[in-house]
């Protein structure tokens, strides 16, 4: 057996082997000694001495580092096993060294040094093993790599020893050394989770496994099995370790950013510096990967040349060695690539967590005006994601430079000066791509702006969908959003065309460079009478050319992307440099602490806040002033800020918490650690409990919360909710009524126990009973705020609160007209006293107040829509296996002919590109066969045509999809989504999270517009190229064809095993982003409240929790994609090894040298293509998930009743309204909210609808507007049953004014007259009637863009009234239209309504009764039923329910 394996002894003796052959460095031994082997000296130097020296150089540092760490393991059991194995290994090395030094046959000049270093290294590994076992939670990578390298490099020596006539002792000892080396690898790889001390038990799986388990991703297999067999949940995804979590990464980045003094690229430099250890470690496996890759051309050349060599014994051994070399190289490529990307993805995960956390932390420290203008959400989402995506190729940029240089040098050895042509072609491609890329920025910026406008308009419409439907604006909204979509697509067409040319130009070198190089080389050979190119040269050159073009193309693609990342870093840096709002944090609730160290205004201990001649503006010190020459002291106690609409009350309150700037004069430092509730209460999309505790989910004082709930009148509401305190509030509190939102905000203020409470019109949404109860519980002499000594600063329109105040500040036109004690101000302004002591009476200061529970005990769906009952995620089966109907739906939206054209272009490109390599074989074979050079022109002409056809196919493929198909799908899918959304009944929006719908229009449309096309092209192109190449490889490989079905089956099983898990992890990644975005959005909306409460740390911790949850699927998705690449690399490597083995090892394989070269080059390309294709398929399925969500939404969203149009444009001719036994409900299966209402309203009659909260007031008018479902009875308008009418058409013929005004994006003119049927003079007249024309004129007139933020709440309501004046409908509907305005504005609006609509029917829902006598009748509702309906005087004159309501309205 020995002679058959290592050569015949007779053969060696006959050729007389030189005695000193093994003492030379070789590396190859003289063939007369051994058929094919290394010299002993070479093995000593490179397989032993160098490895030991490197290990010994690292060992002292590792031992020193470990010695400084704490002991983490509670047991010595595993350590003793390691010591036993490594000690035995050390003894064996010592014994082998002794035996060897005594043998002349094994002696070399460096054998002593090599043996000594091996013994010392083994002993050093013994010490390091013990320290690492006790002081580290994971196995030692250094030891595992050292023992692995020793084993692999020890195999050639074992072969050498058994081929020599050496002593049996050396052979046995070295065999034992290798066996114990394997044992050392095994014991060093054992994890020690169970033996860890309690403090270190919570480490992740990744932290406890060895190098090879991580390198081959063995630790991911349990998750793959779970994903294949069950539906993955977030808990099934492994946790990320502390180095990848938000707190660690954000703290490192923040500290480094704060220390940096760099003037340029500060954030970029800081980010790289924070991750320098990880970035530098990635360099090692990346260099090793390059080395293995460069070995492939040499192997191809040697394999092809070997086929033309004589079939003697030496060449047979050489062929077997080549097969082994192929195995080593392909395994090396697979493992080094896996390790490289694993380490790279860890760095990317750190960067993602650090930047996201840093952006959020800075956001919640900014003023609200700065946050609104900074697009912080875009920075956290788009910019961070783009940075992570582009930095993924960061190492490819630097690695491509030496790879290109080495590849060009290697190529020059084959084709001389023609080696410069691939570089020239690539540089030309880069230049052309750069010219295209210059236009990318402006084109993409315009497109993004178009997307932002459309999404903002859509989000605004959906956020006000109830108002949109009340106004009958569905058609206007649809037309507006469609127009914005058309503009967006028109703008994006330029970008998409540029993108097509960029793709074609960047990929062209892979086709053009081989042609140019081989053509010029052939021409040079003929003109200089050189020998023709050989087959081995050509296919080695093709492999090297790909190693030139691929790094250059990668460089060409990665560098512009890196510049995009730099731009993203720049935008984030600019945001981080925005000055935070200055605060003086306080650790306790003492008000005086907030006044310490006030350099801008002297403040005595008796003031909470002081203004001294201050001129206040929003946005910046140079902004338009809102408050002028403000001088005031806000003292402890109760202070009210009063004044007409637009006087500056909100601005003054915002100044207290640092939201404004003092352009002139001075004001105190902003208050912190105070309770604050803005005019529109800030409600998070969370539970009621978490809103009351301001996001604090743990350490809740349940007893104190119960007290707060009772004092704020929330007990009955919460008890009526299905989940009580754990009931969701919905986006912006959409599941709560306006009054409930305000009471939750009050409960939050009370629960916080802050010493200063700042409230902005907090009672505007309360009904009389609730208002009386809450005010008595909190503000009266016996109220909580008084008893607790809490100072209250509030802006209010309700003059009847003033007698409870200690001090008043009266504002008019941005100036203080009066300030001082409330008694003095009231005496100076008799109108305030009259209001205070009006017919309803002032609230009692000490009397016991009856609970308002009865009035709220039956809160209906009107006030509390149910939680989201419709699942927006895909079905579990679809999560695992997908849904093929989605592809049919997408193809239908794209069109048959565009899809067919795309497929034809793709297949043509794959066939032509593959045939090009076969054509090169034909050409070179003919040249080697002695054919005349006259045929060179023919071969080159056909070759050039094939190259041109390949590039043209790529151009056609990209153009058809990116330009034509996108235009169709983007328009059609968006139209389907928009139609389904606007046609859905209101009940759908009450059940469905509005944020999830907005996500369809933003993220899903973005995936459909951009990501899906690129990934579809990558997948389809890769699939076609892989399919064609595999067929050609099978044909050329002859016997290999039998293995192709097996490999196809293996690929199918792998992708099926992989896709089930990757699909679910990708969905989990998307799903875990949703709460992250929700929290970020909530924080942006409530940033002023967060800072006022001094809750930045609490919300930062919550962001950290959500981000850490999001990190899990993000990181794992990257790793499982790399697992797929590893498996495919090994499979394709196995294919190449089988091909070489069949060609070189089997006699009569009949595989020609050219065929082997073609097959090996194609297999080299097939490797990358296959992994990229499956990865593209995974990403494509993710993007198709957006289509699936659109399809599911369209299929499952209910549609409003499709009826007939109203009879005529002037309908209703008369304003009669009749409810005939009408019972209505919000949901088809829900409880009724209005029951058995029988009521007739005559034309021109004025009806006021009153009742406690939840009594069904708004539900009644919503039934009239067909916003709720009429279950029984009917509603007649103008004598016609409205059930037959189309809903939106009916609403457009009525004239509602909702409680919350809504305006479309556009001009004042468009918003006043969306139909465009009124002349400008009439529009101006309407504005003059509501006293808004001067303000509109000052802004530029009717054609000026309407900016909501520039109007106060009262001014918006007046603008709504102006719009209603222009509507000719006979029926006016008021849904608490004056609840958010002051009494002067209310009186003004009431006068306009009674004068402008005196001949029309008016139906008004109200809870203020100051002008009740102007109505003809009052309808009182309770628990959804009519209680009474009569003239106001009649009801007030008897013991009626309305009389009780009237007198409770203080």
Automatic annotation (TrEMBL):
This protein's GO CC annotations:
plasma membrane
| Domain ABC transporter: start-end pairs | 609-838, 1217-1448
Name of the featured protein:
P-loop containing nucleoside triphosphate hydrolase protein
Compartments it resides in: Cell membrane
Q: List the biased-composition ranges (Basic and acidic residues).
A: 850-870
Record's keyword terms, sorted? ATP-binding, Cell membrane, Glycoprotein, Hydrolase, Membrane, Nucleotide-binding, Transmembrane, Transmembrane helix, Transport
Lipid bilayer topology: Multi-pass membrane protein
**What is the protein's major site of localization?**
membrane
- Protein family (similarity comment): Belongs to the ABC transporter superfamily. ABCC family. Conjugate transporter (TC 3.A.1.208) subfamily.
Q: Where is this region: Disordered?
A: 831-875
Q: Which organism is it from?
A: Stachybotrys elegans
Do the record's keywords include Transmembrane helix?
yes
Q: Which residues form the ABC transmembrane type-1 domain?
A: 287-564, 903-1182
Question: Which Pfam families does the entry link to?
Answer: ABC_membrane, ABC_tran, TMD0_ABC
């Amino acid at each position: 057996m020995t002679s058959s394996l290592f050569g015949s002894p007779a053969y060696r003796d006959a050729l007389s082997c030189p005695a000193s052959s093994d003492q030379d460095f070789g590396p190859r031994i003289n063939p007369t000694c051994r058929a094919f082997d290394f010299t002993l000296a070479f093995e000593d130097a490179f397989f032993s001495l160098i490895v030991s020296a490197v290990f010994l150089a690292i060992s002292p540092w590792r031992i020193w580092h470990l010695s400084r760490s704490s002991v983490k393991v509670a047991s010595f059991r595993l350590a003793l096993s390691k010591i036993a194995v490594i000690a035995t290994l050390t003894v064996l090395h010592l014994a082998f060294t002794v035996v060897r030094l005594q043998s002349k046959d094994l002696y070399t000049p460096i054998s002593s040094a090599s043996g000594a270093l091996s013994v010392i290294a083994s002993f050093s590994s013994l010490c390091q093993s013990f320290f690492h076992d006790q002081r580290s939670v994971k196995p030692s990578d250094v030891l595992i790599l050292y023992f692995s390298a020793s084993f692999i490099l020890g195999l050639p020596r074992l072969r050498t020893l058994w081929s020599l006539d050496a002593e049996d002792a050396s052979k046995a000892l070295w065999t034992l050394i290798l066996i114990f080396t394997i044992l050392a690898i095994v014991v060093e790889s054992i994890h020690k989770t169970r033996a860890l001390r309690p403090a270190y038990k919570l480490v992740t799986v990744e932290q406890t496994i060895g190098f090879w388990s991580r390198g081959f991703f063995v630790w991911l297999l349990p998750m793959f099995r779970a994903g294949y067999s069950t539906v993955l949940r977030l808990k099934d995804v492994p946790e990320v370790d502390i180095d990848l979590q938000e707190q660690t990464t954000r703290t490192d980045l923040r500290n480094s950013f704060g220390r940096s003094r760099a003037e340029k690229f500060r954030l970029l430099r800081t980010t790289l510096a924070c991750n320098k250890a990880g970035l530098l470690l990635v360099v090692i496996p990346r260099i090793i990967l390059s080395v293995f890759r460069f070995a492939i051309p040499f192997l191809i050349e040697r394999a092809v040349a070997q086929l033309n060599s004589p079939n003697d014994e030496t060449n047979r051994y050489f062929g077997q060695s080549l097969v082994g070399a192929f195995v080593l190289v392909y395994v090396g490529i697979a493992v080094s690539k896996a390790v490289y990307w694993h380490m790279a993805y860890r760095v990317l995960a750190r960067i993602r967590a650090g930047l996201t956390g840093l952006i959020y932390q800075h956001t919640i420290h900014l003023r609200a005006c700065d946050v609104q203008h900074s697009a912080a959400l875009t920075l956290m989402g788009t910019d961070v994601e783009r940075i992570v995506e582009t930095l993924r190729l960061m190492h490819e940029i630097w690695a491509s430079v030496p790879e290109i240089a080495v590849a060009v040098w290697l190529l020059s050895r084959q084709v001389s000066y023609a080696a410069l042509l691939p570089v020239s072609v690539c540089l030309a491609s880069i230049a052309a791509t750069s010219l295209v890329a210059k236009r990318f920025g402006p084109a993409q910026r315009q497109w993004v702006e178009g997307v932002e406008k459309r999404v903002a308009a859509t989000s605004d419409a959906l956020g006000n969908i109830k108002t949109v439907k009340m106004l009958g604006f569905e058609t206007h909204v649809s037309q507006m959003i469609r127009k914005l979509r058309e503009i967006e697509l028109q703008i994006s067409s330029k970008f998409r065309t540029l993108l097509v040319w960029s793709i074609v130009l960047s990929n062209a070198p892979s086709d053009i460079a081989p042609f140019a190089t081989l053509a010029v080389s052939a021409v040079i050979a003929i003109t200089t009478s050189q020998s023709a190119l050989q087959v081995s040269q050509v296919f080695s050159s093709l492999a090297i050319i790909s190693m030139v073009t691929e790094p250059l193309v990668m460089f060409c693609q990665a560098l512009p992307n890196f510049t995009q990342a730099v731009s993203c870093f720049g935008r984030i840096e600019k945001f981080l440099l925005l000055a935070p709002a200055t605060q003086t944090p306080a650790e306790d609730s003492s008000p005086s602490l907030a006044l310490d160290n006030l350099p801008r205004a002297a403040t005595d201990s008796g003031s909470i806040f002081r203004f001294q001649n201050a001129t206040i503006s929003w946005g910046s010190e140079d902004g338009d002033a809102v408050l002028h020459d403000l001088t005031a002291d806000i003292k402890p106690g109760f202070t009210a800020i009063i004044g007409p609409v637009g006087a500056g009350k909100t601005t003054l309150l915002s100044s207290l918490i640092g939201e404004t700037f003092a352009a002139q004069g001075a004001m105190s430092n902003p208050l912190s650690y105070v309770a604050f509730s803005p005019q529109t209460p800030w409600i998070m999309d969370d539970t009621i409990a978490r809103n009351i505790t301001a996001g604090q989910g743990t350490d809740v004082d349940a007893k104190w919360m119960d007290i707060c709930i009772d004092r704020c009148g929330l007990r009955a509401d919460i008890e009526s909710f299905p989940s009580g305190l754990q009931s969701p509030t919905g986006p912006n509190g959409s599941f709560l009524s306006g009054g409930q939102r305000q009471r939750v905000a009050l409960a939050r203020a009370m629960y916080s126990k802050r010493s200063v409470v700042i409230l902005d019109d907090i009672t505007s949404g309360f009904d009389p009973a609730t208002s009386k109860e809450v005010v008595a519980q909190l503000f009266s002499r016996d109220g909580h705020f008084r008893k607790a000594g809490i100072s209250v600063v509030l802006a209010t329109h309700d003059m009847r609160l003033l007698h409870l105040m200690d001090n008043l500040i009266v504002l008019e036109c941005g100036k203080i007209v009066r300030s001082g004690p409330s008694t003095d101000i009231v005496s100076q302004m008799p109108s305030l006293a009259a209001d205070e002591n009006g017919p309803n009476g002032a609230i009692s200061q000490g009397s016991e107040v009856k609970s308002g529970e009865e009035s709220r005990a039956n809160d209906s769906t009107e006030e509390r829509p149910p939680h989201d009952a419709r699942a927006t995620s895909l079905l579990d089966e679809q999560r695992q296996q997908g849904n093929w109907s989605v592809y049919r739906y997408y193809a239908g939206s794209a069109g048959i002919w565009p899809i067919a054209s795309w497929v034809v272009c793709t297949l043509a490109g794959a066939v032509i590109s593959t045939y090009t390599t076969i054509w090169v074989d034909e050409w070179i074979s003919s040249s080697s066969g002695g054919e005349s050079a006259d045929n060179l022109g023919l071969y080159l002409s056909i070759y050039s045509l094939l190259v041109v056809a390949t590039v043209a196919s790529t151009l056609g493929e990209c153009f058809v999809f990116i330009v034509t198909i996108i235009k169709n799908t983007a328009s059609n899918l968006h139209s389907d989504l928009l139609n389904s959304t606007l046609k859905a009944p209101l009940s759908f929006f009450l059940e469905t999270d509005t944020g999830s719908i907005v996500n369809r229009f933003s993220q899903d449309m973005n995936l459909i517009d951009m990501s899906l096309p690129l990934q579809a092209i990558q997948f389809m192109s890769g699939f076609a190229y892989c399919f064609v190449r595999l067929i050609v490889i099978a044909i050329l490989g002859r016997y290999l064809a039998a293995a192709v079905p097996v490999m196809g089956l293996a690929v199918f099983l792998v992708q099926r095993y992989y896709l089930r898990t990757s699909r679910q992890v990708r969905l989990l990644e998307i799903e875990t982003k949703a709460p992250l975005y929700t929290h970020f959005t909530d924080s942006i909306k409530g940033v002023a409240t967060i800072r006022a409460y001094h809750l930045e740390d609490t919300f930062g911790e919550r962001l950290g929790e959500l981000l850490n949850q999001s990190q899990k699927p993000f990181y794992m998705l990257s790793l499982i994609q790399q697992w797929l690449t590893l498996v495919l690399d090994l499979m394709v490597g196995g294919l190449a090894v089988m091909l070489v083995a069949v060609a070189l090892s089997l006699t009569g394989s009949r595989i020609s040298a050219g065929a082997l070269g073609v097959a090996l080059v194609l297999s080299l390309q097939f490797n990358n293509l296959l992994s990229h294709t499956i990865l593209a398929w995974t990403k494509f399925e993710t993007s198709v998930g957006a289509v699936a969500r659109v399809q599911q939404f369209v299929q499952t969203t209910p549609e409003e009743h499709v009826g007939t149009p109203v009879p005529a444009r002037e309908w209703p001719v008369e304003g009669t309204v009749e409810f005939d036994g009408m019972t209505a409900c919000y949901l088809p299966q829900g409880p009724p909210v209005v029951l058995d209402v029988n009521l007739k309203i005559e034309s021109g009659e004025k009806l006021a609808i009153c009742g406690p909260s939840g009594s069904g007031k708004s539900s009644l008018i919503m039934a009239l507007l067909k916003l709720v479902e009429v279950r029984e009875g009917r509603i007649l308008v103008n004598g016609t049953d409205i059930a037959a009418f189309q809903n939106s058409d009916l609403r457009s013929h009525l004239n509602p004014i909702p409680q919350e005004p809504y305006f479309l994006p556009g001009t004042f003119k468009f918003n006043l007259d969306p139909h465009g049927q009124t002349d400008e003079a009439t529009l101006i007249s309407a504005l003059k009637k509501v006293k808004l024309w001067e303000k509109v004129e000052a802004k530029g007139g009717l054609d000026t863009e309407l900016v909501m933020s520039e109007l106060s709440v009262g001014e918006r309501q007046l603008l709504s009234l102006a719009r209603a004046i222009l509507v000719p409908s006979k029926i006016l509907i008021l849904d608490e239209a004056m609840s958010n305005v002051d009494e002067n504005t209310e009186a003004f609006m009431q006068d306009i309504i009674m004068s402008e609509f005196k001949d029309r029917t008016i139906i008004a829902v109200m809870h203020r009764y100051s002008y009740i006598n102007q109505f003809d009748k009052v309808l009182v509702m309770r628990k959804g039923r009519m209680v009474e309906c009569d003239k106001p005087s009649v009801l007030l004159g008897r013991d009626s329910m309305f009389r009780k309501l009237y007198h409770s309205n203080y």
